[in-house]
Amino acid sequence: MKILDNTIIKICKETSFALTGSDRRIFQAKITNEYLEGNQNRAESVFGWGRNTVKLGLKELETGYTCYVEVHERGKKKTEEKLPNIEQDIKAVVEPSSQVDPKFRTSLTYTKITAKAVRKALLDFKGYTDQELPTERTISNILNRLGYTLKRVQKTKPKKNQRDRCDFQKRT
Q1: The model's pTM
Q2: What are phi and psi of 58, to 5 degrees?
Q3: Is the dihedral of CA 122, 123, 127, 128 positive or negative?
Q4: Cα dist from 82 to 14, 78, 79, 133, 155, whole Å
Q5: The pLDDT of residue 147
Q6: Is the pLDDT of residue 35 over 80?
Q7: Quick one: pLDDT at residue 120?
Q8: Exposure pattern of 75-87 as b/e (b: 16+ CB <10 Å)?
Q9: Consecutive H or E run containing 150
Q10: Residue 139 and residue 168: Cα distance in Å, rounded?
Q11: Among the residues of the chain, which ranges form H helices?
Q12: 65, 66, 74, 92: which has the fewest Cβ within 10 Å?
């Protein structure tokens, strides 16, 4: 094992951070072979690199084949990808109760129906099950992405009766 001082360790960390994908793994494998006798556990403790990444880099270096890690396939899929017809079904439920901005300032459409009511309508009329349908918050997000803005409807206030007001003033 060759001697590593702090400046070499720092330069190796910065260079590794600047690289991506297979280039990073190959660099880490070469450094591990050269300075740490191919021990990925030591690479983890000295440089802070993931030992599985270094292990994959060592295999790539040994075989000459590049492994393609499909990072874009990770994570949770959007609801629209899982249920392709949900946008059309939500539009069918929301369209009858929506209206354009009264002052025509924006292209958003206001709807008086809530996300909870949309979810219930999808369950009742569109044949979705409770398990496959997303939560109210997710339906609210989908409505926003479709260009609908959920507004609270202001409750009607009773009109003030002018006669009662005048009688009150006369009594006092």
Answers
A1: 0.49
A2: -65, -40
A3: positive
A4: 40, 7, 5, 10, 38
A5: 84
A6: yes
A7: 92
A8: eeeebeeebeebe
A9: strand 148-150
A10: 50
A11: 6-18, 21-36, 40-47, 51-63, 79-82, 86-94, 115-125, 136-145, 162-171
A12: 74
Closest to 47 (Cα-Cα) out of 88, 2, 81, 15 = 15
Q: Which of 28-37, 48-57, 102-111, 127-136 has the lowest mean pLDDT?
A: 102-111
Mean pLDDT of the chain: 84
The residues, ordered by sequence, that sit 6+ positions from 50 with a Cβ below 8 Å of its Cβ are 44
In contact, 146 and 126? CB cutoff 8 Å: no
Q: What tokens does 17 get?
A: 């951070």
Pairing verdict, β 148-150 and 109-111: parallel
The pair of three-digit structure tokens given for residue 44, joined into one six-digit string: 């983890």
Indicate if the pLDDT at residue 30 is higher than 90. Answer: yes
Angstrom CA distances, 163 to 157, 158, 160, 172, stand at 18, 14, 9, 15
